[in-house]
């Protein structure tokens, strides 16, 4: 491992430490029982099988969204379309899960495949606009999120809505479409294993394949990559398609793994979470797993503190913002980075 890589890991760890320290300060200032609140925040998520299960199940969609964003960041693209893809892929896959009839194992696999294909098709739009016409992918993806939300809500309201339920939810999924539970007493489902397998596949794709090499070279310097014979236009489209497939599969897995029917009436927020996860992981697919678990652990801890004491759950939003600010700040620990690079050069 180079000094540059070691420094990035250290900076990420320091950012996490600073965020947790800020959490402690907030608790000390706000809580009437700060010691007990800190104990709950740090230890309660690890205190029972149920809470450990909550951490794992919360991490699953974060892994998929983080992998999707890590692919985009590797190509120096800032596409936030995963937010809308999670939603619309959940809709398209849910349509099959409600009305189709298939055997248990094949049924969820087909639904997940449809979710992935939906993500691929949707991501082609900002991908082609960026590759062919130079359109800013962040702007086009953000605009598409609103479009996808409107289309999804229309389908939910006019095609999928269960009239027997007062709230806006779909008909129930068929039992054969649901992902099996892995650990009794928790809601950990097969989607967790799929998420781990997906992280490994993305790692192989990114670091062991020709396309992955072209994506990384394009991300480092698109002009140099073009001069060296890499088709940058094709690379931009490929990375959009692969990232869309990952996000689409993740959206549908969250639906059939954690819910009995489609229940989202707004964008779920996983697309924006993915950007934070990818930053924490240094855009490394395996690192995404650890980053997702860390964020999941913080969220479960904050939720338990909120239910057991007088600390608001909004504290977690403050922690996430601090982590993103520190990791994205080029000058954070810049002096130490320069010293490390100089030592490596001398060696």
From TrEMBL:
For this UniProt record, the keywords arranged alphabetically read as follows:
Cell membrane, Membrane, Transmembrane, Transmembrane helix
Q: Please give the start and end residues of each transmembrane region.
A: 12-31, 51-73, 80-100, 106-126, 138-156, 188-207, 270-295
Q: Where in the cell is it found?
A: Cell membrane
**Chief location bin:** membrane
UniProt topology in membrane: Multi-pass membrane protein
**Is the keyword Membrane in the record?**
yes
Which InterPro entries is this protein grouped with?
A: ABC_transp_permease
Output the Pfam families linked to this UniProt entry. BPD_transp_2 (PF02653)
Q: Please name the PANTHER family in this protein's record.
A: ABC TRANSPORTER, PERMEASE PROTEIN, GUANOSINE ABC TRANSPORTER PERMEASE PROTEIN NUPP
- What protein name applies here? ABC transporter permease
Organism of derivation? Enterocloster hominis (ex Hitch et al. 2024)
User: Which taxonomic lineage does the organism of this UniProt entry have?
Assistant: Bacteria, Bacillati, Bacillota, Clostridia, Lachnospirales
């Amino acid at each position: 491992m180079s000094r540059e890589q070691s420094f990035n890991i250290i900076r990420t760890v320091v950012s996490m430490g600073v965020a947790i320290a800020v959490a402690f300060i907030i608790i000390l200032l706000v809580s009437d029982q700060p010691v007990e609140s800190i104990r709950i925040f740090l230890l309660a998520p690890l205190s029972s099988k149920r809470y450990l299960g909550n951490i794992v199940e919360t991490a699953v969609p974060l892994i998929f969204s983080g992998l999707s964003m890590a692919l985009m960041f590797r190509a120096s693209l800032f596409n936030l379309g995963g937010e809308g893809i999670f939603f619309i892929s959940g809709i398209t896959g849910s349509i099959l899960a409600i009305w189709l009839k298939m055997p248990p194992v094949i049924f969820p696999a087909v639904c997940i495949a449809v979710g992935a294909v939906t993500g691929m098709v949707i991501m082609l739009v900002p991908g082609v606009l960026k590759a062919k016409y130079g359109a800013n992918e962040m702007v086009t993806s953000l605009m598409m999120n609103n479009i996808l939300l409107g289309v999804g809500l229309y389908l939910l309201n006019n095609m999928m809505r269960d009239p027997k339920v007062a709230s806006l939810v779909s008909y129930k999924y068929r039992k054969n479409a649901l992902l099996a539970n892995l650990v009794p007493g928790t809601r950990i489902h097969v989607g967790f294993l799929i998420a781990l397998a997906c992280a490994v596949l993305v790692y192989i794709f990114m670091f062991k394949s020709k396309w992955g090499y072209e994506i990384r070279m394009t991300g480092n310097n698109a002009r140099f990559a073009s001069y060296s014979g890499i088709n940058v236009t094709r690379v931009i489209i490929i990375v959009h398609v692969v990232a869309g497939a990952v996000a689409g599969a993740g959206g549908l897995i969250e639906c059939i793994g954690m819910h009995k029917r489609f229940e989202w009436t707004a964008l779920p927020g996983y697309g924006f979470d993915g950007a934070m996860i990818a930053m924490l992981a240094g855009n490394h697919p395996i690192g995404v797993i650890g980053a997702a678990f860390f964020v999941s652990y913080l969220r479960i801890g904050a939720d338990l503190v909120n239910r057991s004491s007088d600390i608001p759950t909004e504290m977690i939003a403050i922690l996430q913002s601090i982590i993103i600010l520190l990791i994205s700040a080029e000058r954070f620990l810049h002096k130490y980075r320069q010293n490390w690079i100089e030592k490596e050069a001398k060696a």
